[in-house]
């Protein structure tokens, strides 16, 4: 009887320890950030204005997945990549006026994360993160560019 | 009021207008994309309803049926979708400027030792049983914990494709076996294990053929072969649509690059924009379908795993054993029905102990299952069909009643609700007493009711 009680109290004491270990594991997993979580807060203008002659760089980071990526400037496919960790693209010289930039990816992976960034002259003009956990069904994004004279 | 009334009213009106303009809600890129996607999703559902009705009740000349055909039929899609893509003008790498491409920085530092232990507990890598400790060995899991970059980056992940095919386990301790070691016809008392290291059991697993890992190169390539055409088609149309919209969108933006929510919502209601969205909705439905089908194909692909293991223990606990095994899983179509099936085979050799001679046992088995009917007025949760067959052969194995045992079973389960189901089964065995004491073929009808949930 006493043995049983001792066993029960041992099991009772082990429970919080196991729970603590599980909590620690979850915290560890949550803190295991990918490159897609890095870079700072999101910057989300619909329209990005850049001066003529500006050098504009776009990059799409793909985390936790193998993906095919396509990037379009207006109607033109300007980059396509398979299974890369990130797809960096220097945008071609743009005429003064309006332009659209669209990127998209497909992946068989059930879990994925992305970070899209647009930068010019050392400043990040746009930053957007997405993941398979999100409720946005579009695996990609778009932004409009206005090249000013 | 009489003299300065008009200018005062005008000024007030200007202030109110300005206040109104300032208070006008704007949306950022994420919100705009959400509004757009909601509209596309709604149109996708509408298209599905129309398509169903057009196939059954509506006349082909109905305007909505014409729309369905216009967006769904490859031959009717605009020439833009058929236009071959230009070669990308920039696919190479570049030296990123500040703010972009900070990939030189390692994603995360490796977890600390306490975190590793916590992860091991969480993932059941170490299992402390009553008198047995089992350590599951998954080399890639450890690599992933030590360096999360191998999970984050596909380029790193692919380097460990071979390592991911190996796994294993080691157990220490356990209980002695019930055996008649001295041949007196009586089962000897079970010997107590004092030292956990007395009984050691280990197993090595090698995934010799195939993989269901969606990130694996071979699965990624077969996925791309099937899904890429519709993906590209969708993107070409989307890029074309955005190019047509760009002037209107930029016109509704403020200095910060945000756009008026009201104007954008009005824009999405325009007829020409609606036609664009409907084409996108149709393409997204096809893209989603292609994606789902290809994922299912990966999930039912063939995988073979070979295992090799052994148990080492002093004679008083039982004989030393070695084991070989093979297991194959795959999905296949029988007619139009998809079967999930598993084949397994194993061989165990036990070394002589006491008066017991060397013993061997062989086992081969197959089991399969399928959903014959997903739902029906009578059986809301459908009908499942399962079948299995196995053959076992024993040489000098203590406790084995027969040298050879063959069994087969097939079960049809009628799932009337989630908790009420009626299994109808037929079982065959080559020895009567393995079924009941009656015949070699035994029929069985049962009603099962989920008591714990009270449903």
What's the SSE blueprint?
The complex is a heterodimer of chains A (149) and B (455).
Chain A: H1 2-31, E1 47-51, E2 56-63, E3 68-73, E4 76-82, E5 86-90, E6 97-106, E7 113-120, E8 123-131, E9 140-148
Parallel strand pairs in A: 1-9
Antiparallel strand pairs in A: 2-5, 2-7, 3-4, 3-6, 6-9, 7-8
Chain B: H1 5-23, E1 26-27, H2 29-56, H3 63-72, H4 79-82, H5 113-122, E2 126-128, E3 132-137, H6 139-146, H7 149-152, H8 154-159, E4 166-173, E5 200-209, H9 217-251, E6 259-260, H10 261-268, H11 271-299, E7 303-312, E8 321-334, E9 337-350, E10 359-373, E11 383-395, E12 404-415, E13 420-429, E14 441-445, E15 448-449
Antiparallel strand pairs in B: 1-6, 2-3, 3-4, 4-5, 5-7, 7-8, 8-9, 9-10, 10-11, 11-12, 12-13, 13-14, 13-15
Helix pairs in contact in B: 2-3, 2-10, 2-11, 9-11
3D structure, described in words:
The complex is a heterodimer of chains A (149) and B (455). Chain A contains 1 helix and 9 strands; from the N terminus they run H-E-E-E-E-E-E-E-E-E. Chain A has 149 residues and is α+β, with helices and mostly antiparallel strands. In chain A, a hairpin with a 2-residue loop joins strand 7 and strand 8 (123-131). The N and C termini of chain A lie far apart (89 Å). Chain B is α+β, with helices and mostly antiparallel strands. Chain B contains 11 helices and 15 strands. In chain B, the strands form 2 sheets. In chain B, strands 2, 3, 4, 5, 7, 8, 9, 10, 11, 12, 13, 14 and 15 form a 13-stranded antiparallel beta sheet that branches. Chain B has a two-stranded antiparallel ribbon with strand order 1-6. In chain B, strand 2 (126-128) and strand 3 (132-137) form a beta hairpin. In chain B, helix 9 packs antiparallel against helix 11. The longest helix of chain B has 35 residues, at 217-251. Chain B starts with a helix and ends in a 6-residue tail after the last strand. Chains A and B meet through helix 1, strand 1, strand 2, strand 3 and strand 4 of A and helix 2, helix 5, helix 8, helix 9 and helix 11 of B.
